[in-house]
Amino acid sequence: MSWLQDYAQFKHFLVSSPVEYVAFVEIIRPAKMNAFVEDMWVELGRIFARLSHDPEVRAVVLSGAGDRAFTAGLDVQAASQSPVFKGGDAARADASRQATQNRRHISEFQDCISQIEKCEKPVICVLHGISIGLAIDIACCADIRLCSKDTRFAVKEVDIGLAADIGTLSRLPKIVSSFTWVKDVCLSARAFGPDEALAVGFVSRVLETKAKAVQTAVEMAYLIAAKSPVAVQGTKELLNHARDNTVAESLRYTSVWNQAMIQSSDFKEALTSAVKKSRPRFEKL
């Protein structure tokens, strides 16, 4: 598939296409349990920004290479050598200037990870093995989360002396069914397993193995990709808007959105195919 050549430049991620219109993104640093260094989150942001507008892609599956970990989070050893950790030019800069440097660094990190949520295409995240710290930030940005039975989750940031700042504390309370549970796992940094993650709604399915979870995710992505991209991308947009706004505001936004999108040829194609009991074919978007 020639379009995949556009993604061959990335060092820490492998992008493939197991079935038509589905992109499979893998974190490929298994020797370090897929732990993130700065170059990785920059690459991740660029990949998802590109996937968002790629007409060859209608759904995305995200996972990590190897069997040990989806990701062990931030590479703490590498992070300890960064200017932010060391205090940067603190010896020459006053506290306000150092704080500004820190804020800019955190905002860049946030923006890169948020590209997963901003991606116009649905993203299915497959978690397995060690899935801690940044793994939770990344997973919270996905639209659908699956995991294998060996997954071990944790919001680990308090154990390294900081409040999670890349998205977990903002998104996790809106994902799961219990705010007290969110405070439980975020304040204690305790580990929790697949059954607990399923019970609170953090994941929608638990599969026996990583291979089975990836297979299931690809099947789900293929099912989504076979549908109207106008309808699918609109549905993701409207659901995310509803999550963050009132019912009245969301109803108004939906009416404005669909006053344009209902004019798509996909609407007619889907109705005609339903009558004829044939499989619809939708144009690229």
UniProtKB/TrEMBL annotation:
Coiled coil: none annotated. GO terms for biological process: fatty acid beta-oxidation. It is found in: Peroxisome. Keywords: Acetylation, Fatty acid metabolism, Isomerase, Lipid metabolism, Peroxisome. Pathway: Lipid metabolism; fatty acid beta-oxidation. The keyword Aminoacyl-tRNA synthetase does not apply. One of its GO terms (molecular function) is delta(3,5)-delta(2,4)-dienoyl-CoA isomerase activity. It holds the Pfam family ECH_1. InterPro entries: ClpP/crotonase-like_dom_sf, Ech1-like, Enoyl-CoA_hydra/iso, Enoyl-CoA_hydra_C. GO terms for cellular component: mitochondrion; peroxisome. Belongs to the enoyl-CoA hydratase/isomerase family. This is Enoyl-CoA hydratase.
